[in-house]
User: Which sequence fits this backbone?
């Protein structure tokens, strides 16, 4: 530490005139090669013009080429997604597409998976600071009494966002608010940030105490799992359901509903003692593969992978299986949805653009349940390891 | 529902001779176009031969092209990563690269971020079933007494994996075991699955009760956040640390250490009441962007985004800031690490292949802390929304 | 197991004419002596007539005599509790009363602890079952639209309880409802059980699907800690606050605000990784001692001990310390509040009967904060163990 | 606030010569009467000499008389508790004793409840502070290498306590240690505090960096529920099991095993989304009633009420029901166990003194399962509210 540190490394080159060009990207790749020796030959091969990228990336150098596998058909019986779907899944994990594909066949042969969006809102959660808890409580009452004006201030910033509910949470001399918005077909994190800032500024100007605030008090809870999401939803709350019959299940999966139900008790108890965000198997796999393919904000896997499975063995021996994704964040407009490959994948699902978000959410849920049935059966039937051995050949 | 359901949709074509060819992929894209009308023109443009893909994908149709932005240099002072790094970040979220870039400058101007891997193991968690809790307890003692034989059975399946510790958790007449392995430079989920299966089969054959087991009792906890990961680590536990000086911090970020510390109290309380997996800001953003670029199993963002921030304002006014990633799952060998763009990105970090995993983990932690400092400062300084407005132009 | 089991042990005697008499109690003690050899001499010494006990106990045999220590005075500046209070604490743990007493002195010398009840409702959470998630969602909308009728049905069963909010939580084909009631000065668990049963019966009769329900779906969450309580309150949400000055703190406790704040960062990080219900020290101690003395339902310590501490070191060096009890369940009417010693203890606090519950809640919070300051200081100053050694003499 | 505050209230009188006398207690009651008007007539009636109280209470004024009801017989088939037990339950909640009594009959008629202690240790969790994470990691390795010396230092302070395992948890530049001790028949919180202080002092003196430490870093987690307790046990981990037959269950409880299993799925899902410490019903009720009667540290209900239920419907229709108490803290020696009524209640269970703790733990678990079967059945059969209406007559 007492030595003179080495001089700072060179800055990344930028083109002040127009940084979103193939030339600027190429210049940066050359810079990387000069600095690191890595040529970025494949990274530099992309099929679209960088001029579309403002709003999506800075210091563009090229692309990650993530392999997409095709799964399906998956028959979905939702309110928005209704029919047979072929699913693009971007992943580098062998077996994943094959396993989901198997589950999709199972669900489809039962006539399709029911998918239902039961709640839908995006949050920003500012926090206001007061002299003491009494003042903070009074503030909370004032907020409730001024909901209409606050909503007007928030909604003035957006054509689409609508403020629905403001949750309130008291800690010490703080008042955390959780603004819940309908955001249409956008995921809406930025939309609600801007709207909530305007609302907070209106509050600060109009409340007699002109209280200080932070735009996020960390209960949004942006880019991380939380129990508040499990309870109160972040993004979409969407449920996939199937009632499995042994006559179809047994030949395809080698297990019965009763065996699955038995194992379910064990995995639920495990999830409970582990303090798990999800008492099911591997929702993150299907969601991530769909998210990468379809231009979603993939970091939202942090929130979106949370789920609760609820099952019952029916009197006739059929097996009711549901999974509730409590905080699925997805969009069919804005963000990365309009980029070249991403838009194509949304289009093959019939989900691109306005009006697609609820349909896409239903597809996500159906895909997740397909993956649950396949992996849970594999663990039980004993072919989990052998299938990875066969399809995951390049592993150590 | 009483109507005759529509006939099943056609099956996805496969080439039985060799399915990993450009022709097979093209045939599937044509199939998608015929079924859905979506041409997949861009998806079909990739720069590598599909023959490398077995073990990574099934039913290959092409690639998702995810834009990569370049951030840095980030000066890291780790045991394995030591020097200035340029960071490839694959994302479609505007502002993200710029924001991390700003944080990297802050850390670098302080002489670099200290990064340390403090723990490292991958899990598989079988569960054994007994007549009653007494028998299960006896089994637990037997497992402890036979650790060497169990380890030998497990390690016979792998050149790399080493069984370190078997955790035991008792519930009812069940005994959950949590096998913890060193897995070298692979993430190791499949490796430990195979090894644990062998261990369980040895146990079943040799324990006097020949107990039934499931290979996963769901406390692994694969592809999901859990408190057991926060406590006991999954993958790498890696810590990034910086001691910020106001003389550097204030000009760059517009805030002081004291202000950050004040806000930290509020965001920690928020995270606590929310039951959050992470009491910091947005670790998932940096991790996901690195994971997509570098061929990681991106679904592991579910586990990897968990973190604990711990900070202190020092007597001299400097601000000590640490973030502990408790379950970072990463690899520089196997999985998607060898694919075309992914390998290039690992190579520009000097992390590709054997010996790179701990270095890559340190880089991940440093990147995360850079993003934490930038976003936390922006929320406080009030330029969070305005920067998204400027750099996230295509949003509604 | 194959042996014939021993015959059943004799039944406990009951007096069918009037079981709440000294004679019936005596007969049962004699029975215990005959069966076990234990004379229950002290258990049989109580100072009230058993005729008051219906509604509180069955098979009465006598009393547990739990020592009460006196602490205080504690100066409280609340909305309902305002002045100096002497606190009865029933415990068998040496040091506890002395330690709380020390904290009370600290708070009082600062002019008193501010205490504020910021929320107040008791829950019962039935769950309704449906064919699928879509039907359950429709039911949820129906419940929202029929709130007034549902409230009327619920409130017809009680003179005091008022239905405020019905939370809704969707999982699979289930709809969990969480009825939140104002319950006056009673804790209200039975009141809200009865009211919610009536509401559910009205719903079942009037909803077109006549859905089945369970009166509790386990998200009440009765007699157990939960994150939903931390977020949404169960019973009273009450906050105690103090701003400590080193000039008073240092002589009394041997520590400074800055030292306490430093240690707070460490204990908060610990609580976070541990997944703790409370990121403070030992709220359960003070609450339990008050609850036993004052005739509360002591099992509610399970819920009531949850708390969140939030602190700041102010610019002038003073130390703001708050604790938020998120689910304090207490009563001054009904339950055990009217029994002999219990009523006396409530009366010495001026809390017995109608109108006392909010005052009692404020006292609980003030007492808890007193205990927090004392124990936290002791851990830091190093006299934690020595004081227990001195005052906990009978221990091994 | 700008007014002159009222003068401080008078101090509680103490007798410097001998404060543990009836006279000193009487003087304090007179003081309370003078200050508050409350005569404490019943509080002053106790049947033992105050000379036994040092180590249990300070500023003694008398006792809380908590009614005890008798339940049972409960047939237990444990390793330590084996036979029929009559259970003293101290509570003021009507219906509680009757309900547990009903459950005890159910379990007894099945031949008794199996109870097994599967783990047993008490914790103190110091935290050591370092320059950076690297130094903290090195310290962790040093601690592992010096386990024997550390244990010797700890055990030199106690005749009974034995240091078993030191868990390690890394956060930033901190190293949290969790010392786990066997503590014989004492609960042991003070014992392990003293022993761990000695161990920390030995570490501080002998480690080259002579690091600072806090005796508790809040992951003990003393007097509060935590997930670390659920996973790693605090106090006793004890399991109660029963296999119910419809032929006995249906006549007594009005429900079948299949119905209970169906409802169990619903209450488990509820507990999971609520983030509950316990996915069963009301363990806190039985534990608290036993704890008050038997001289336990009742504040430990905070930790002790955590539980995990695991059930299966067997092929023959029988219903396997287990509950695992993960952090039951109990003692039969030290603390309040030797006081007048408390000792009598322990004696009627055959648990007083040395050698009783495991037996008492088994009894606690058996009692809890009895209460679970009764309440769960009542919710299902619809007589939950009506029984409270009948037995809880004094309520509003």
Assistant:
């Amino acid at each position: 530490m007492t030595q003179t540190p080495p001089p700072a490394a060179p800055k990344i080159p930028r083109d002040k005139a127009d940084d979103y060009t193939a030339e600027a990207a190429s210049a940066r790749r050359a810079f990387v090669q000069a600095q690191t020796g890595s040529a970025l030959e494949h990274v530099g091969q992309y099929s679209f013009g960088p001029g579309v990228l403002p709003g999506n990336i800075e210091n563009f150098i090229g692309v990650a080429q993530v392999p997409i596998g095709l799964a399906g058909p998956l028959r979905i019986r939702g309110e928005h997604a209704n029919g047979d779907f072929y699913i693009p899944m971007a992943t580098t994990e062998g077996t994943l597409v094959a396993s989901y594909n198997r589950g999709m066949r199972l669900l489809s042969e039962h006539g399709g998976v029911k998918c239902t969006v039961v709640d839908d809102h995006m949050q920003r959660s500012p926090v206001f600071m007061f002299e003491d808890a009494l003042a903070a409580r009074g503030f909370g009452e004032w907020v409730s009494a001024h909901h209409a004006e606050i909503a007007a201030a928030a909604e003035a910033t957006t054509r689409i966002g609508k403020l629905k509910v403001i949750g309130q949470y008291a800690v010490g001399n703080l008042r955390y608010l959780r603004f819940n918005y309908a955001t249409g077909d956008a995921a809406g994190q930025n939309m609600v940030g801007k709207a909530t800032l305007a609302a907070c500024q209106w509050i600060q100007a109009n409340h007699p105490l002109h209280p200080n605030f932070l735009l996020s008090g960390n209960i949004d809870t942006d880019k991380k799992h939380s129990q508040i999401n499990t309870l109160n939803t972040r993004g979409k709350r969407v449920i996939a359901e199937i009632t499995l019959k042994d006559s179809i299940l047994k030949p395809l999966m080698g297990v019965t509903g009763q065996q699955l139900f038995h194992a379910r008790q064990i995995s639920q108890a495990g999830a409970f003692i582990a303090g798990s965000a999800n008492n099911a198997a591997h929702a993150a796999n299907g969601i991530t593969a769909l998210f990468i393919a379809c231009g979603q904000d993939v970091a939202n896997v942090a929130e979106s992978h949370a789920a609760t499975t609820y099952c019952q063995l029916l009197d006739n021996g059929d097996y009711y299986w549901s999974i509730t994704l409590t905080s699925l964040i997805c969009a069919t407009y804005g963000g990365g949805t309009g980029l070249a490959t991403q838009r194509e994948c949304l289009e093959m699902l019939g989900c691109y653009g306005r009006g697609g978000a609820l349909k896409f959410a239903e597809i996500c849920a159906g895909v997740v349940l397909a993956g649950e049935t396949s992996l849970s059966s594999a663990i039980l039937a004993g072919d989990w390891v052998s299938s990875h051995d066969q399809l995951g050949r390049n592993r150590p």
